[in-house]
Amino acid sequence: MVLEDCDEDFYTLQDAVRFATLPHCIVRASSGDECLLLLRDESNGQKDLPKLVLLDLHTPGDDGRKVLNEIRRDDRFKTLPVIVLSTSDNPIDIKFCYSNGANAYHVKPVDHGLHLHALQQIFNYWLGSASLLV
Amino acid sequence: MQIKLFKLSIAGFIQHSYELFAKKARHIMNKQVAKDFTLPWGQEPYSAKRHGVTLKTCDSEPVNTPGCIQAHGALLVLRKSDLQILQASENTLEILGVAAGELLGQPVGRVVGIKHEENLRDMLEQKPLEHSVTYAFTLSELTNGRELDVCVHTIDGVAVLEFETTGRTESHPEGNFFMMVQAAVGRLQTPSSINTFCQQVTQEIRAITGLDRVMAYRFHADLHGEVIAESKSDALEPLLGLHYPATDIPQPAREIYKRLWIRPLPDATGPLVELLPLANPDNGKALDMTFCALRGASVMYTEYLANMGAAASLTMPIMRDNELWGLIACQHNSPTHFPYQIRAACELLAQVASLQLKTAEYAEQLAYRLKMENIHHQLAVRSASEGDLLALTAYQPSLLDAIDAGGVALYHLNRWWCIGNVPETVQLDALANWLYEQPELESSDRPIFVTDTLASLCPSAVGLEDMASGVLATVFSRRRRGLLIWFRPETMQTVNWAGNPDDKPMISGPHGMRLSPRVSFELFIESVRGRSLPWLEVEIDAALRLRLLILELVISRGERLTELNADLTRSNEELDAFAYVASHDLKEPLRGIHRYAHQLLENAKSTDRENQVRVNNLMRLTVRMDSLLDSLLHYSRVGRMDLDFEDADLNAVVEDAIEMIGARRLNSECSIEIPRLMPIFNCDQLRVREIYSNLLTNAQKYKRDNHASIEVGYIAADEQAERPNAPAEAAGKMIFYVRDNGIGIEQRHFELVFRLFKRMHGRDDYGGGVGAGLTIVQKLVQRHGGQVWLDSNIGIGTTFYFTLSSLSVS
């Protein structure tokens, strides 16, 4: 599950998934509201819960912070790994996310190569190395 | 003892001398003479005429039973029950036409006639005459042709008749006289201040009596007296404004005036006339003449008046709440008459003066209070508009124009602000420390300390009596030691004391040695040394209200600060929001541009070389834009972040900075020397590390040849060293520096280098950079309360200097 309002950034993310040759399917939400809606949809038993949630912080509607809060407040999503991807390197944002249960916080580099590399690392780690709840 | 201003003075001198010579006691006012003293008159009835007094016996003089009257009138003592004459003054032949010896045992009708005897009987039955001298009738059918006013009063079972010549009817025809008194009383109804009121009283009394000098004499709280009003003939020297020692008027004399409204002595040089017999034949007692207008005066007093050149005196008390507040003292240069009519008018005026005194006091206090309040208010308004308490002492009118004081000292903003005569700063500090220990200043609603004898209480004030005998102090901020002190000098330095130092100390009189005013004066100086005029209740109140005004000022300033802080917080939040926009909204498209450029470069291998360069440039520009945005964000955060002050070992801080910039790497082409150990300093070490890393980065970048030689060091506050271009604020502070041997900076650019994004060289020369490093250094230094500046020579090198807060630990 990816919350990302910026198309370019989403494309970069898709590229990263492709280069990492991951079998996972990506569900995109462009706003916080949509993201929460999709998550709750999936939790109704129709679909599987996402393996990993990637949140952009600054999104239309409910922003990433709100989504993070909602996820951590909901018993069904408590165990979901949530990774924040943001342009901001503001310590206030970073502190907020970790305080509110984010599993990791990454600043998106402007350099496309670096950006791609960072995303690949995230996927490799969370969907490869780390043990997640099945 | 007759009582009168100057009479009182001499009584004081005498009493002083007695104490001084016989007892050497300090406090003399209420001391009594030893009872075993052998009196010249032994067990016999006393006669002032026969026995007189000397310096040694004056304290024992039975002033109320002198046995004698003044010669201008006659006196008869009647048994109250049958109005038989028990005693008569020896001069009845002259005054009444019958010798005293012939009158004894006779009914009073023998002198006044049957009709007046009946009058007297009626009066004694119907009127309250005990201790109350009352006009009875005028006796006109005398064999000697005299016309006499007769006054009567009763005391101890006898009726006392006093006969005096009716006088002054020529100058004051009856109708006019009473209109005159009435008008005088009318004029005394609207007093504006005590002094003007008393001045009015003296003028009215002089107009009625026609005497040479009429004075109003006021007792201060320490009982010393001051001539506050005077009406006199032009020929006389003024006594207005003179102060007299308290001891000039002994307590017993003051007590007498609580019972009497008037003491006349129309002919001080006249002879005394004894009563025949001296003692009442019924009980063997001497007549108590306390209330007799004719009572014979003490020779001590008449002598003193004669020395003064005064031949007559008239004295009336001014009472306030049953206390003797002052005296109306009159004197005349030649013997005169004080007929009953005049005495009654003067008594009336004295009573009116006493009744109106409180009104006058109130009016004066109100005026004084209004003046103080008005000035204090003006000062508070000025202080408020200037946002500072300094206006209290800096302008006219100042604090000195409100509460009457010699000097005022205000402790505010860690220093003293003074006006008028005040002690030195060191002495003020000591006094402030002492004041803070006084429990009075700990009161929450009345934190005020008042004394008129500071040196006797506060050891550190000894020696400051000339300016700080009196102190009125109030605290307006205990935490910040905000203190306001009014000072008053020693009384003896502020007033004109009566008593001429050139007088001979002792003079010999017909009755033995006499003290001159000079001795009295010197004795008195001892009693007022180190004492100021007392602080009035209205002054204390005014000080307390000023304190409230100051508190309001301080509080409203606090509120303003709170508002400013709120504004600041708001604008900081807005700045944050702006920085956010810069961070996110500007960077997002930048990332997109970079991505497309990247893809262009990857996917279109066929693109010609020229286009590849363009795309590369595009990508490089986006990265640069990104750095600029980062620097901007960082700069905005540096200005607002909270600093975390602690004692930091700057050696470690500098080492970390060097490590961060990689200057110690083998191929760094850079050497850094630290000539001596850096100190431990109270600062935010992360920020100071950033200062060093930025300065070192610069030093490393702008090298002249392939090798940068950098020195990191400091100049201690008290160290002898050159401090080129150091700003004034850096004086007395430790100065840190980073020196390089690089390309140098032109002097005209010394200020410019600190400007955000300002670069002195081409964008990619000297390792590139966005031009924010020095701006951030400057901001960080400023946040530490310091300054940063530089000294540089082209082709030789640059030294950046900076100070941090002045709190050096070691």
> What is the rounded distance between the termini of chain A?
16 Å
Portion of residues within helices of chain B: 25-40%
| H-E string of chain A | EHEHEHEHEH
Strand content of chain A: 5-15%
Could you tell me the mean pLDDT of chain A?
A: 86
CATH uppermost class of the largest domain in chain B: Alpha Beta
CATH homologous superfamily heading of the largest domain in chain B = GAF domain
Let me know the largest β-sheet of chain B: 7 strands, antiparallel
Number of E-type strands of chain B: 28
Briefly note the structural class of the backbone of chain A. Answer: alpha/beta
State the CATH architecture of chain A: 3-Layer(aba) Sandwich
**What is the highest CATH level, the class of chain A?**
Alpha Beta
The oligomeric status of these chains comes to heterodimer
Strand content of chain B: 15-25%
Describe what you observe in this structure.
The complex is a heterodimer of chains A (134) and B (810). Chain A is built from 5 helices and 5 strands; from the N terminus they run βαβαβαβαβα. Chain A has helices at residues 7-19, 32-46, 64-73, 91-99, 112-129, and strands at 2-3, 28-29, 53-56, 82-86, 104-107. In chain A, helix 1 (7-19) packs across helix 5 and helix 2 runs parallel beside helix 3. Chain A has a single domain, classed as Response regulator (Rossmann fold). Chain A has a 5-stranded parallel sheet with strand order 2-1-3-4-5. The longest helix of chain A has 18 residues, at 112-129. With 810 residues, chain B is an alpha+beta fold. Chain B has 4 domains: 5-49 and 170-269 and 301-364, 2-Layer Sandwich (Beta-Lactamase); 374-560, PHY domain (Beta-Lactamase, 2-Layer Sandwich); 563-640; 643-803, Heat Shock Protein 90 (2-Layer Sandwich). Helices cover 40% and strands 20% of the residues of chain B. Chain B is built from 21 helices and 28 strands. Chain B has a 7-stranded antiparallel sheet with strand order 1-11-3-2-6-5-4. A 7-stranded mixed sheet of chain B has the order 10-12-13-7-8-9-19. In chain B, a hairpin with a 2-residue loop joins strand 20 (506-509) and strand 21 (512-515). Mean pLDDT of chain B is 80; it is low at 1-37 and 500-519. The chains are: A alpha/beta (134), B alpha+beta (810). Chain A binds chain B through residues 6, 8-9, 11-12, 58, 86-90, 108-113, 115, and chain B through 579-580, 583-584, 587-588, 590-592, 594-599, 619, 622-623, 625-626, 630, 633, 637.
